Amino acid sequence: MKAKQMFNPYLAATLAILTYIYWPDTAGFWQSPERQQLSQQDLVRQARSLRIAPPEINDRQRQLAQLGQRLFFDHRFSADGSVSCSSCHKPELDFTDGLKTAAGMGTTDRNTPTLINAYLLEWFFWDGRAHSLETQAKGPIEARLEHGSNRGQVAQTIALHYKESYEALFDPISVELEHLLKSPRFHASPNPKAKTNMSQRLASYGVATLSDFSLQTEFIQAAADQKMSPYAWFSQTMLHSESPPSDWIAAYQGLSPNLQKELDQIFLNFARAVAAYQRTIYAVNSPFDQFLAKLGDQKQAPQGFHSSFGEEQWQGFKVFAESGCINCHNGPLLSDQQFHNIGLPSHAKLDIGRARGLLLAQTSPVPCEAIEPQDREACMELRYADLENFEVMGAFKTPTLRNLAKTKPYMHDGRFDSIDQVLDHYEDHDQEPAIGHRSESIPRFQWSDEERQQLKLFLESLQSEWNILQVSRQETNKKSAG
């Protein structure tokens, strides 16, 4: 038989007295100077985690960068000689263009990201379809709305105008290919892999995750007008980029396997030189960086701060950290370099983001490991990523917050013209994303007017003059003006 439990008043009284003596008052404990000191130390630790260092390059990379700088500003690599890399990445605008969406041979659907501190990036383009700067540098050349060119024209321009500089760094151009490149206009481009099966799977999933009923209705009506299924219409409008002209494909296919391989190699070497130049562009001396340098190994924020980073900016960082902005905007670039659906509603054009990037990467005519074999881990992530994972639908790469003041407009489609508009979006808890589901990692923000002002002051303190390792700012600005 179970013994009856009895209340012992003497034991209860003893426990109450011991608790009173040895257990600190809860409210007093959490508001004590010791607790505030621990909070300051945690803030300082988080601030210190955002430190950034300039790039380091060897002599070979420096030589590549010197060639790459010339290629970067050369308009002859575009279809009609009107577009260079610097057309969208203007040095005077911190290597952006100030437009909502980039404009080359035509107008694209995406905003131009800055190239400053690109040496620290892990993924490239808003959808992360490139895993290296080399892959990124190739993309715009053969994109119809950007340079609108092809690898044949790239090889021809190099052979005619950069042969000596090119062959000082890479294998010489073969006599056979050089003979072909002397023709008036040599255009050659491989045909992209068919995307049919993969894109149809992704299309069926994409239509199902359209969260806006009016968009579903719009797609169904548009498909009916074209006598297509909603899935086929989604696939055509969201996923397929135009193939190169048939005569470019025919010219490429008419080359021997060895000449195709050599042409591809010249195109890759072009990208390696441009990428080497892009790796030399950095900005690491913002008021916030100067504050971090003064902070050193101290456990508390220094008294007096810096002339451009004072108490208000520090309070802004506190708001930034404690409200959860730092969950995604962390590390040296203030970006976790991951992909999130931040709940942007329908705007100018529906964009499925990371889902499209993965499709393009997985159907690229050149396997990513053939470009930069050392980046195998990132390459494998691209190759085997699940296209039907709802988290990639409508997700975009977390942008860097460095040099934010001079790189507006903001978001992947340039929809916001000011930091205030960005903050307004994050405080609007009723918005639903046009497609997919809002990432659970995005906090529900709510700031007071004072906190918003302090947060903006902190974000503005991330602005820094850019530098280039191997050439002066004056040379780069001169090339841009020319």
TrEMBL record:
Cited InterPro entries: Cyt_c-like_dom_sf (IPR036909), Cytochrome_c_Peroxidase/MauG (IPR051395), Di-haem_cyt_c_peroxidsae (IPR004852)
Compartment list: Cell envelope
Entry's transmembrane regions: 7-23
GO MF, any single term: electron transfer activity
Domain Di-haem cytochrome c peroxidase positions: 63-182
Coiled coil: none
Pfam families linked to this entry: CCP_MauG (PF03150)
Keyword annotations of the record: Membrane, Oxidoreductase, Peroxidase, Signal, Transmembrane, Transmembrane helix
GO CC annotation: cell envelope
Predominant location: other
Name of the protein in question: Di-haem cytochrome c peroxidase
The organism of origin for this protein: Pseudobacteriovorax antillogorgiicola
